[in-house]
Amino acid sequence: MATSLKIDDTLKGRVQHLASQRRRSPHWIMLEAIQQYVEREEARESLKQEALASGATYQETGRHLTGQETRTWLNIWGTEDERAVPECHK
User: Fold this and answer.
1) What is residue 89's three-state secondary structure?
2) pTM of the entire structure?
């Protein structure tokens, strides 16, 4: 699929300058930027959907961990005392 982009002269110059520094083509720089943006936004949307689902589950069940319980658990990650996720409670 061929697509064209209209960018202002300032941005075009910046892309060309960066491409020259990286010894890449401006086309490569723009494709890389678009790919990284799309991946970042997909990850952000996935996190948002996961948070919404968690919120809905909490509203339905009331089961949770407190902030302190979570911090205590996270603080022992990678230590000899590391344990499985604590049980949620009401």
Assistant:
1) strand
2) 0.73
